[in-house]
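re: ur question from earlier - yeah i can do the single chain one, its not a big deal. heres the input i used so u can compare w yours
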Amino acid sequence: MAVLSSITEREVREVTRSFFLEHRGQSLSFEKVARLIVTHLYHTFQDEAGQPAFALLRIFRLCQHGQLPPGVRVASGDGQERWLALAATIGVEAAWQDRRLSVGHQAIPAGSSLSPMLRAAFEQLRFNPNLPVSAPSALKMEEGNTLTDRYFHIEKAPGSPFIPAQDFVAQYGIQSVIGLGSEFISGSFYLLVGFSRLPVTVDDARKFVEMSPFISTLLALSDSSGSLWDA
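and the output i got, formated as tokens:
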């Protein structure tokens, strides 16, 4: 377990590396790996009282309509080609423990109607949602940067124009938002978003970058295995 405000970059790297080594050889669906990751992060990062630092953690995968999970596919037609499919979720509410219980977030259109927060995430991660999922490079990186340099961060969630759902922020005491993302060989993309009940400074946010190589690699391995969703 780790107190979010005091853990070092090296400690973040080591705890995530251990998790990676434990699970890298397993043949699991993308959904299963995503669920293992959010569960690990939820129980690893705590406040000083030993309570989870994150009220909610989620992983999304960019999908074509035909790749959406069973049960979501029919309800989410609408002629939309690209979707952010909720792959895993965990949080303080019982309804946040299972992606199938999510109301309104099981499949989010990845077009021009993106929410301000997702649009900010895509901009910070240099992701262009208007490219087709099959494009060989959906992430446009600046010279000298790598995928593992990138993170998404809203330091002050209360009053932020990037989070219109301020009732959610107030009800659960959300102080900051932190996220990671990376592209896969398939041309798809994952986005991990955590809503923290503790302030996450810029220095704290950079600690999360240490997790990116391990989390991204685990998800990339499962993405290439051919099995996205649990039966």
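The two ends are 32 Å apart (CA to CA). not sure if urs matches, ping me
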